[in-house]
Design a protein that fits this description.
The chain is mainly alpha-helical. 50% of the residues lie in helices and 0% in strands. The N and C termini lie far apart (62 Å).
Length: 68
Amino acid sequence: SMLKFNTGIRRLTPTECERLQGFPDDWTRYDDSGNEIADSPRYRMMGNAVTVSVAKWLGERFRGVEEK
């Protein structure tokens, strides 16, 4: 059986992770066929994603360099 340690720290839900990354709610919930995706791959996708606000900032910086 799995050991469970109560650390008093709650795991973030997939929706909370989506919000932290700047994605809309349920952004990772369904695949392109409309099938629901399990939580584990959703966490992995969000962990590999670039945060929306960071990507926007980088894009603005790159554009500024090109204009000089």
